[in-house]
Amino acid sequence: MTQIARYLTHPQVAIDPHVPVPDWGLSEIGRARIERLAAAKPWAETTKIVSSAERKAVETAEILQAAWGGTLQIRDAQHENDRSATGFLPPDKFEAAADAFFATPTRSFRGWETAEAAQKRITTEVAACLSDHSQGDILFVGHGAVGTLLYCALSGQAIDRRYDQPGGGGNVIAFTLPQRQVQHHWRPLESWLTKPDLAIGGRPA
Q1: Residue pLDDT, tens place only, 20-59
Q2: Where do runs of H (alpha helix) occur along the chain?
Q3: Which residues contact 19 (CB under 8 A, 6 or more apart)?
Q4: What is the C-alpha separation between 108 and 147, in angstroms, rounded?
Q5: Residues 76/55, Cβ–Cβ less than 8 Å
């Protein structure tokens, strides 16, 4: 049986401008979505969950691991792109900043980690986790920007925001092991609540 690695982004968070972004937790909507996924248990072959150390990702991973069992590993270097230099940005300014982040991968937006550096970090981290993984499927729990950068690297695409996840988070990409062949582009977690895990489709043209 082909082993599968999946990358799941945390769903909606409780936004608080007075709290550092890495310390934001899941909102009621986000938690409810993950609890539904946990109850559905769609990925029965998952034996290991690897999470970013940011609170919203850890909360997501802990809900799934409590329902599914297996091991949970938390890794500091799987965080979202480092944008601490600007702190919280209101939605309109954040969207403009994210556009610039993806559009100029080698240049920093106002002190942010560059897209090129973030891509190298997340691909190195994923490779390290896969180097000693031999049994069952693996689920990475993380973030939209670095997840998109991972997708671009795995699929041989140039860094481009058109590969970014849809709004709301809680989306999944998947790739085979050990070949690391992409199965599909971002799909909402709800795709697995009532349907089997299909192997095709999804990547934008």
Answers
A1: 999 999 999 999 999 999 999 999 999 999 999 999 999 9
A2: 28-40, 55-68, 91-103, 115-130, 144-155, 191-194
A3: none
A4: 19
A5: no
